[in-house]
Amino acid sequence: MKTLMISGGSLDEKFALNFIAEMRPDYILGIDRGLNFCYQHEILPSYIMGDFDSIDSRVMEYYMNNPGIPVERFQPEKDATDTQIGIEKAIELKSTGIWILGATGGRMDHFWGNVQCLALAHQAGIPAVIVDPQNYITLLGKETMLEKSRQFGTYVSFFPLGDAVEGLTLEGFKYPLTDHYLKNSDGLGVSNEIAEDTAIVKYRQGMLLMMMSKDREA
């Protein structure tokens, strides 16, 4: 079951609508200010959730008056971010994959909090991706094959989500690595490129964050 979260960060209208059409999610979670986008494009979420402190009043009234959409409302002063609450709901729904739109742009503390939330899905064994027109961000399992024909953008970067990743090996890349200890202060993982038809990423310990990126179109 594929779950799409529409959050309240920056949303490129054309990219988001094309992504939703191609993905055809089983569940759509409208997360706080992401509901404004849903309303503008007549998207009916499967669930809506958040503290709703940044929602247009007309939008909130419209969805609150729709009895077919469960609403989970939280106080603004809470111990979890809206994105964390959304990922926990996606896990509860037994999702097989989670994709998040509107998790980038704006405040960097919000963005980094969203990235850290990917660990919740990763620890539950569910792939989760933050995506926007320039970036595809996810945590990888211990061994992953990447196909050059299906990569998102030109550049592939790797970062530890935590202190370090042990035993990082990159095969089929422009800049290969063998059994490397990648520290969180190490810039060696930035802006690599897939050089072969397929590339392999392996590591022994830690959590490995991958960012596939492309330059902004002129």
Automatic annotation (TrEMBL):
TM spans (from-to): none
Organism: Lactonifactor longoviformis DSM 17459
Record keywords, A-Z: ATP-binding, Kinase, Nucleotide-binding, Transferase
Keyword Disulfide bond listed: no
GO biological processes: thiamine diphosphate biosynthetic process; thiamine metabolic process
Protein name, entry field: Thiamine diphosphokinase
SMART domains: TPK_B1_binding
Record-listed E.C. numbers: 2.7.6.2
